[in-house]
Fold:
Amino acid sequence: MSSRFDQLPNRRAIIDRRSLADVLGSLEGRDATALRNASTALLKPALDAGRAEIAARLVEHPQAGREAASGQAFLVDQILRLIFDFTTQRLYPLNNPTASERLTLIAVGGYGRGEMAPFSDVDIAFLTPYKQTGWAEQVIESILYTLWDLGLKVGHSSRSLDEMVRMAKSDLTIRTALLESRYVWGDQSLYDEASARFDAEVVAGTARSFITEKLAERDVRHKRMGDSRYVVEPNLKEGKGGLRDLHTLFWIGKYIHRVQSVADLVERGLLTKVELRQFQKAENFLWAVRCHLHALTGRPEERLTFDVQREIAAGCTMPTGRAARPSSGSCSIIS
Structure:
């Protein structure tokens, strides 16, 4: 399990992957489609229950934005691992796999950071060592159908290692998504090879151009969003001073110093300890409001419109008699 989720309390209350794996392993049937449908019927209530648990925790601790975002990513991780194992072991097992029949599943983008709002897209990539084999195509297709049947909105790609490197070199969006890639499941050595090639063949020697392009991208985004921090209906994700600005700062630091977390940037001298606390407080606040906004509207809404501001402000207020967690930011600035 990724250390990224070590601080997430009582993970098994969100989802118990081992118990679900045992039940999935006991499903009977010879037809792959029927088995996949049976697995979906088992996983859908588990996904719903996990989301309900995370939502209940956010109600109990309304300011714990980063914890809520981490919980959503953890839940999706476990669902993906269950689907991957079931697909490769039960639906399309290989008795004697060749070197070409290796597959790894990685998280990219915001999901790669281990952060998701309740209605965030699930951004994933399938990597193969060479050109896809028939087995890999079957597995990938089946996994995607299961995810869609679960009601998840999935952003996905399927590439060989050479294709990954070539596209990351030519496309800034793909490069940025892969910058935050994270191993989820499958062939660990294949992921390690992909990560090493990304560093050596894509990142090395390109920091200056990456920074220039990301800052230009930021300026275009700011202009599109009104180019002001002081808007009455802010976009929490894309607006000036929103989450994307925090992400951009981290992307630049990570690209230059190849760190794994924002806290690591203190040791590299890019942030002071005071600036790190400010960064984390802002991040926690924005995630808290964003998660409340998704939950309130029931969709991936990023704009804090007038009609929801009062209710969001009330939702971000701690229940009477309860103290905020020491690591939490404050939502009081929107009330």
